[in-house]
Specification:
By secondary structure, the chain is an all-beta fold. The chain contains no helices and 11 strands. The model has no long low-confidence stretch (mean pLDDT 94).
Amino acid sequence: QVQLVESGGGLVQAGGSLRLSCAASGRTFSRSMMGWFRQAPGNERVFVAAISWNGSDTYYADSVKGRFTISGDNAKNTVYLQMNSLEREDTAVYYCAAAPIGMGYKYWGQGTQVTVSS
């Protein structure tokens, strides 16, 4: 079993920054794609960013390109999402997820709330 715990959410003014962390524990997959998703009230959960297991490849939703950066620290089993130039539209619950090879995003964290005020 894999446990994912997000942290770093909070309230920030538009234009500000936050860094989310996702700490993985339990059985650790050395070759998992790690991703961030978000869900705003009344909306479906959507993809935000992902990073390959070795950090060589990153992927972003168009809405966050140039503002968000995903990174990982394998020694700490932690994935980060640096969010800059935050906008009100970024307000959502942010979830971390792990996708072992060939399995899709099977493991999910509990989510952390990000609220951007104008």
